Every structure is written in structure tokens, then in C-alpha cells.
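Figure S4 source data
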Amino acid sequence: MKSLTEYLIFNTKTRREFVNITLDIEKLVKKSKVNEGLCLVNAMHITASVFINDNESGLHNDYDKWLEGLAPHEPIDQYDHNKIGEDNADAHLKRQVMGREVVVAITDSELDFGPWEQIFYGEFDGRRQKRVLVKIIGE
């Protein structure tokens, strides 16, 4: 069995951002030389997410508005977590909704997606360095 472990590094300029990482993951699948297997993509921070959806800007705007409606950043004193000196309780909640990781099958050395599917990194408490783990295993 073959395996590859890599880390992608992100340092977004804004507090919330969605980054399409599909091409980065596809390059790593090629690098792994795995023909049949699985690819795990995992946000390594509790205020960031990895998810699969359509690469459409209107949808991304809808996500941003919807998530802010579910867990608004301000006022920051509305959250017990922020009473310990933090200001990112909303980011933890947004991550919980959007998810921690995705697993995608590798078939014939390519990510085996459904129509329109792409992989995104979701940042909810940005402007500092964070990592995403990519683990590829298979034959």
C-alpha cells in the first residue's frame, strides 16, 4: 500500500473566507501515485472547515450570510466562550456546522467526484497561519 501525508498552509487576509483547494488536492493525488484509494482532507484547527460543494460565488455568499445569521460574530459578549478573553466563539460554531473533513475516493488516479463537486477550505477566524492535513492511502 502507498501513502502520502502533506500539509497545506493557509493565512487568510480576512476573518471569514472560502478557498477552493481542489487543484492542490489533485496535485497531491498525482504525487502519491495512488491509483485506487482514499484521500482525507482535514482542517487541523477548530475554527476552520473543509467541505465539498459547488464552486459558485453566489452560493459562497449565501453560506457566509447563512452562517453569520446562525452564529453572528458580534456582539462578542453574547457567547460564554468569549468571556475567557476569546472573541471567536462564533467561528467554533460555524466550523461545527460546516464540518471538519472530507474523504474522497480515488479511482484511476483521480478524485472521484460527483457533478460540480469541489473541495473548499473554510476559514472562520482568519488572519493567522493554519494547516490542513491531506492523507492519501491506497494501491
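Figure S5 source data
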Amino acid sequence: MAQFPDYVDVEYDAGEGESPDEYPTLEGKIEQAIDVTRRGLEEYEQPAVMWTGGKDSTLTLYFVTEVAAEFGFEVPPAIFIDHFQHFDEIHDFVDRWAEQWGVDVHYASNDDIGAYVEENALDPGDEIPVEALDGHNRHHVREILEYEEDTFPYLLDTYVGNHLLKTVALNDALREYEIDGVLSGVRWDEQEARAGETFFSPRHDPDTYPPHDRVHSILQFAERDVWDAFWQYVVPETVPEFPEGHVPRSATDLPAGLEWADIPVSPKYVAGYRSLGSEVSTDKTTDEPAWLQNLEGTTERAGRAQDKEDLMERLRDLGYM
């Protein structure tokens, strides 16, 4: 593969200083998403899609498959980070729809930590000795994170836990599969640390991560726009029996003959979750389906552990999404 980024010709400042307000209609947001996705599939030799099973990454994957079909590209593989603390329903959702859509999924995980957790029957929150890790992980803990404690908690939404279980797993997968462009479902309005992102965001420091770019095709979507896109496009185009224009008004409001397993929307959103993190660090405040909640007047990530939310800017610099 050619030395990155010599063969890539994208505008790294595209979208700089913008917000969802610059794209006032859903159609305009979709047009921009298609354009960014097309460039992502054109410019990179080995692209991949970050897929968490959440609404944003699933919408991103939808645009990728649609654009690939329209313009004659191969559908790139998806990378699913298995951090060992997922809701079981997330695994089931990803497996089902990967098969349905014909998407090849690379499951990335930090197997050194996974093996230690299994051998010692650890539960989330239990302590892991730094010296029990292999040299690769110890390097990240001591040299990159500059963490000085003897142990760290086996928790996803903490500084050390998030980096080892997600970022290290992701970067190892990017290196293994020689990925040069990662299509990711990041949005400007989702979190303060992401408000300054651009549509093509460079990650070129070889001392921090395998050099690559992040391609952010849905930056311009607000949370409400994501759900509008699902009910107006993703669901009716994926499920032929689903009537165009129908938006379920409750968890039981589905057209006759359909079940939620037939709909490409995670069951956790149906149950009231608005943001999907780990099983032990994500809560919900209501049983109302996510798209029916007060999206404009409440915080989307309020149910997520704040340890990670407060560190998002530094985690981004280390390669987190």
C-alpha cells in the first residue's frame, strides 16, 4: 500500500467552523452525507466503517451501502469493537444485520485483557494489575497515558479502560487490516469534543496510531435528524412491508406482521436508551422509545458515565472515536 497520505486528495478543512444549522433540511443533510461518503469510498484504498450497532453508525453504514450500490464501489468491511461490556442485544443486532446486509465485520478486541478477565473471572469494576498486561498494553498505560497507579478498574467508561478496551483494540485492527480511511458516525451536536470535527479528519501521527483519516459523513445531523432519516428512509427501504411515513408512537406500534427484530433499530432504543455505551455504565431515564423523547430539551448522553465524557478531548487525541 502506498505511503499514507500521498495518494489521498481531500479537503481537511471541509466543514470547519460549521454546525447543523448550515444544513437546515433533512434533504440537504442527506445530500452532504452522500457526497462525503462517495469521496470516502473513492479516495481510500482500504476503507472501513466503524459500526457500534448504535443509530449513528448504523445510519453511516446505510449511506455506505447505498452509495456503494449507486456508484459501483465495493462495500467496505465494518469494524465492531468488542469491549466485553456490551449489552447482549447489541451483539445480536450487529450479527443479524451484518448477515442481512452482506457486510463483512471485523471484530476488534483487546484479547490480552479479555484473557486476563476470563482467567480471573473478573466483573466490571474489579481491579487489573498493570504488570499483568503484556508489553503492548503496558506501553500504552505507562508511556502513552502516563498512568502511575499499580492497578486500574476493569470499566469501559474510564480513562484507562476506554483507551485499552476500545482505542487500542481499534488501532490494532486498523494496523492489522491496513485501513487508511475510517467512516465514522460522529456528529457535531453529540458531544463538545466533537463540535470542531471536519468531514475529513487526519490521524497521521505514527507514534499515536496507524496513520489514517476519519471520514465523518453525518457530522451535520442532529439527533432528531438521525431518527427522521431512519423512519423516512432507512427502515422503509430496508423493510418492504414497512409503510412509508409510519413512525411508531410506542414500543408496540408496529405494522401487522412485523416485530422489532425485523427493523434495523437497536432494541435498546425501543426500550428507552438514547445513547448506547457499556451495560454497566449506561442508564435510561424513561421507558419511552428514544425517538419519542424530548430530544431538543434534554441531553443525549446524560445516561453515560461522566468519567469518560469529561476526558473526551484527550481520548480523541489518542485515537478514540
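The first helix runs from residue 26 to 43. The chain has a mean pLDDT of 92.
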